[in-house]
Amino acid sequence: QPRLVESGGGLVQAGESLTLSCTTSGLYFNIDAMGWFRRAPGKEREFVAAIDWNTNRTYYGDSVKGRFTIARDNAKITTYLQMSSLMPQDTALYYCALRVERGTTTITPGTLFDYWGRGTQVTVSS
Predict the structure, then answer these.
(1) C-beta neighbour count of 37 within 10 angstroms
(2) Can you list the residues of the chain whose pLDDT is less than 70?
(3) CA distance 49 to 72
(4) Residue 42 CB burial class (10 angstroms; 0-12, 13-18, ≥19)
(5) pLDDT for 85
(6) DSSP secondary structure string, 50-118?
(7) What's the distance, CA 83 to chain centroid?
(8) Among 21, 59, 95, 108, which is most exposed with the fewest C-beta within 10 angstroms?
């Protein structure tokens, strides 16, 4: 059974940085993409970033462009989310997600991801 596990969340002050990791196990298929999403209390889930596993092309939500960077480790089948200049509005539960290979050519905030982790909490104090 495929499994995604996020780590690296925590409590930081505004302006600080944090790096999240997402490790995988139990994969028996190729990957199109991995992504990060977040959900703040009382809000809908929001697309944060994604990376095309074949081309290494990256995608970002408007609210994090220029501050967050997604990266991958092919050998470990792990993805990272480097977050800098954190703001209180970045406070949320951050989820990792994986899209099974379908020959996808582009990723959008509405792209379907097949497997999800349970999330890691990021809290940014002002």
Answers:
(1) 22
(2) none
(3) 12
(4) exposed
(5) 98
(6) EEETTT--EEE-TTTTTTEEEEEETTTTEEEEEE-S--GGG-EEEEEEEEE-S------TT----EE--
(7) 10
(8) 108
